[in-house]
Amino acid sequence: MGSLENYVIPVLREMKQFEKLLHSQHEIIIFLETRLSQLKDLVDVAHKHNKKVFVHADLVQGLKSDEYGMEYLIRNIKVDGIISTRGKTISFVKKHNVIGILRLFALDSHALDHNLSMCQRVQPDYIEVLPGIVPQILTEVHERTGIPVIAGGLIRTKEDVTLAFENGAKAVSTSDPELWNLG
């Protein structure tokens, strides 16, 4: 994967945006909520348009987020990256040379500390921090782990995107099409 430096990653929530993304300059598309029955066709079409597809494995309807489910995503669906809140999932996908993004919810200090120690054990390729609008948390997560950070969740304005980049985020993930061409 190319550099994610100051990159806005579109998060696909509504299928009506899919065609637009296929013809965009974006290299990566994140499928946040999909049905397992649709996923292979969507990934195949995206790959034909030279797009990399990351899937939030915990949110694929009809898929169990265990090692067999991940094996299916990797071998049969041929996703390029997997996002999950589960450390075991990220460890598994990394062993299969697929990009692993650990989604971390910064709810309070205890949750943050717990998630950061999981990051140290699992060593994901990226950490997606939610909400991505808390600049000091983005900085802290990167400083404490040394792992590149993606800011996600509650990114609503151009200023939110800029602030995330200024505070160490390598990329921003957003489902807001108005923000997809920033960065």
TrEMBL record:
Keywords: Glycerol metabolism, RNA-binding, Transcription, Transcription regulation. The gene is glpP. Coiled coil: none annotated. It comes from the Bacteria. One of its GO terms (molecular function) is RNA binding. This is Glycerol uptake operon antiterminator regulatory protein. It comes from Ornithinibacillus halotolerans. Regulates expression of the glpD operon. In the presence of glycerol 3-phosphate (G3P) causes antitermination of transcription of glpD at the inverted repeat of the leader region to enhance its transcription. Binds and stabilizes glpD leader mRNA. One of its GO terms (biological process) is glycerol metabolic process.
